[in-house]
User: What shape does this take?
Amino acid sequence: MVIGLTALLAATSVALVLTAPVIAFPELNLLARPFLVAMPAIAGLVWWRRRPDSRTGPLLILLGWLSAVATLQLTRDGTLAQVGLLADVLMLTIQALLVVSYPSGRLRTDLERVAVAALVAGLAIGLVRTPFAPVVRPIDFLSACADACPPNPLFIGDRFGITVGPAPYHALMVAGYALFVAIPVLLVCRARWRSANRRERAALWPLVLTAYLLFPARILAGVVVLASGGDTETFLPIAGLSFALRLLFPVGFLLAILRAELLANRAVADLVARLSAGDDRSTWAGTIADVIDDPTVRVAFRPAGELIDTTGRPMGQVAGPGRVRLAVDDGDRRIAVIEISDTLRDDPELRAAVISATRIAAETAELVDDVRASRSRLVGAADAERERLGRDLHDSAQQRLVALRIHLSLARGRLGPSGDDAGLADLDRDLGEALEEIRSIALGLYPSLLARDGIGPALRSVTRGWQLPVQVVADPVARRPEEVEAAVYFVCLEALQNVVKHAGNATHAVVTLADRDGALELFVGDDGAGFDPDAVAPGAGFNHMRDRMAAIGGGLRIDAAPGQGTRVRGWTTS
Assistant: This one.
């Protein structure tokens, strides 16, 4: 309906131009009028669809429709021309109101309310002036009528002996426009620009630029008209400038909203990349604050009962003064609550960007948590099975071999010295070696020394007697939970076994464990042949080590080069 009515009004304005008896600038009017109707309406439709809660869209559409009504000033009927003049005055007021109330169409500050009060005063003064002009003299340069202006049907100046001629009329128009419209609007623009942050300025500059071009230019045009004495040939360039700037005005609003959407899209990409890059949710509030340029951001995740932000402080049940809360939901489940400055209340694109990016990042983090928990369960189950096997070896096979060795010793005593004693001695030696091998395997499955004394002593014990010398540097290292120590121990052991199997001419290996800011770091290095990581695909051993570290929230990296040995570096989060 809006599009149809706009098209009808644009066609009507063209018809009025074609049928008007006397027009100062016929070609310019024929070109300008349909655009002056259509451009604000198009910008208003875009705003209305993008931001249905904002009054800016309807005001822009109304501005376009009033442009069609203002074309009535081209007629020589006094009543119709007076209606067109009133529409033109309302257009000037709406232009100023659109800038002052940008972007929501609502007044937020005292300065904005003062500016609107000035607009109302200027409108009232203009209406009071109207009955004292003997003719309907347009304020729109495209409607200039020079000496052919129609009579004013509201003229009552002759009753009071007050008649406003052309020069005083234009002088009052210029002074009133400057004092009650242009200056208040530009003061609001200046204050808004100075108080805006980096993000707000990036979206605001198209509108501010438009305002600083349009309003001073209209004052300049009025001064030129006064100086020309009403000569239409003299102010033809001014009429063209007026047309250009009036077209630029709705374009400024289009650029502003498109700029806001572009910034919001960039914010989504930036937030998703930065939030998903790390799973430490305590840093997310700072990341959001940096992207939207609001240092007061607070975030609470998985809220249940009292809201607690990422710093551990309660957020309260309602937002404080000058604050607004954004709910981040996944269906019926609330993932997070974000509290920000209410300056974002008029930026729905950025609000949606923050919510969307936080939802994606939170869902990603939950998936990472689930994967990590799954890894931890698998590794834990493997460790439990390893411990069970160690106990079974100790309690069954090892004990039976010990009993068999005792019976063998008793048998040797009963036989006494004989030719078969050498065979029994060999059998006893084999049983001893089997016992030592089973004991070694049982200890390797889950060494009791690890649980009793920690990672360093357990590694020293298991590598003692190896052909490859291994130096273990692990003092002082604080004790960790059992699952952390088990993961680090078996990763170090796997890395050392890889040195023995694959390092070739390695002469020694070193294991270093160290506390770093509450986390445990491990290093396993050798002086062997090394390898090219780009040419050798990671095997099951490396994947197993990586999974173990990931299961406890840590990480693992391997650095190697041909002829320079191999270095395994790992870290935990606690």
